[in-house]
Amino acid sequence: MSDAPTSLPTSSSASLSQDPSLHPFDRAIALKALPDGNWLGHTSADYRNMVGPYGGITAATVLNAILLHPARLGEPVALTVNYAGPVQDGEFVIEVEVFRTNRATQHWMLRLVQGAERTPVLSATAVTALRRQAWSGPELDMPDVPPASSLPRAQIDLAGVPWTARYDMRFVRGALSLDPESAASDDSCTEVWMRDEPPRPLDLASLCSMCDGFFPRIFLRRPGFVPAGTVSMTVYFHADAQTLVAQHDAPVLGVARGQVFAQGFFDQTAQVWGQGGTLLASSHQIVYYKE
Amino acid sequence: MSDAPTSLPTSSSASLSQDPSLHPFDRAIALKALPDGNWLGHTSADYRNMVGPYGGITAATVLNAILLHPARLGEPVALTVNYAGPVQDGEFVIEVEVFRTNRATQHWMLRLVQGAERTPVLSATAVTALRRQAWSGPELDMPDVPPASSLPRAQIDLAGVPWTARYDMRFVRGALSLDPESAASDDSCTEVWMRDEPPRPLDLASLCSMCDGFFPRIFLRRPGFVPAGTVSMTVYFHADAQTLVAQHDAPVLGVARGQVFAQGFFDQTAQVWGQGGTLLASSHQIVYYKE
To answer: Chain B partners of A80 at a C-beta cutoff of 8 Å?
Structure first.
């Protein structure tokens, strides 16, 4: 964040966001450096959700403002994004503040704002760190599931929700059902193989986006459609960029479940597993619902 | 956060922090309103950890800056605190910014700073919300454990770590062992009954503090002591203040486990259960370790 607010630039949006040679994901998270140290982006029609962009693409774009930052130390360890208001179609600015830089860790505060009034839309904090050799040990095991290639690709055709077509999703359990006649369930767990569509080598930004790739858990607990939206999401990164290179464009296994649904909010815990059973990221969110 | 930085007041710390009629917890989280809308606090010897204060008391103090805030809408739903640097003994200022207020939700950004230079020490974001009647359903079940009264109180006597004496802890499993001869384990799960010592009726601030009441999971996975510290913690509140009144000063059951330990960081997922098996809070953190 700059000390002195600057007015939004009047130029057109970042040219990268319109480059047809790029993957839609890279177009969506493209940012242009502004003279004041902040970043200019533009919403993507490819990742549109019912209201505004898919939350995962917004989180990945915020992360990208850190990944691109010239003062960055190390790689992302934690990111929390708070969806404070709807993102309007069009340009936005991500204000970036390096809150504190230590020897091996760095702390960030970010805001996404829009319009001449710089309307606050999203707040975020992040930690980057120099990773190093240390004793390592997994604890949670990846569920024993059939391979993605043995499962059919889910056909999720929702009017006005183009982002779901940007992922190849193959459900092991807990597939989306918006059938109002479907039975209520006491189990909100989903296991789903995910990859970008078209295929794209996994990186930290796309991993971040996939952490939000689970439809609201309340859809599994309750029959039919329930209005719901993520309020806050946290992603912990357990892999560095180099580790992700080995994943290339293979699908990752996402596992998500709700722990409690109470007074209009539920929480979701999720894991994203890579090839070979490596836990690449764990993620948590708290979600508003109305029923 | 005020627009114009103010210099630290030269007056002595908040008088509440020295009031002997208050519970040590209330003294520790006491804040004094500053004319610029920020809050002045003082570290507490009662909750001192090896380096600086116990992280849970710092998180609770940050939450208290919101709970006390005259512009607050609703009750806490989510809090993320990022421990950017060591808190020095003495006074600190919590800068509070209402990032955005909606009809039913409100977003906050906070910083804890210290000294004449206003050194950045901790960043935080939070969401408060008006809770309302809605369909509710638990999903995760509280573990079936023996009652606190059937278990011995843990004797945790660590030189220079007074905060552990501020909690009555009774371990069901996964008790602290710093014995360098203890065997490495593949299970980092702890189940522990916790309450304030001396007893104090549970409220949102003390619930927040207890979410950090688990020693580092790496202590269970590796023999002996391993340097470790929380980098970022998120708490999701599933109970409102009124619900907590019914808990009074009964112990809560804390459950915590690590999911993966890699390249110097591990994550912890935790639940805090109230009497009757109600999930009061879920919490997550990412922790630095050095081995």
So the answer is: 80, 125, 232, 234
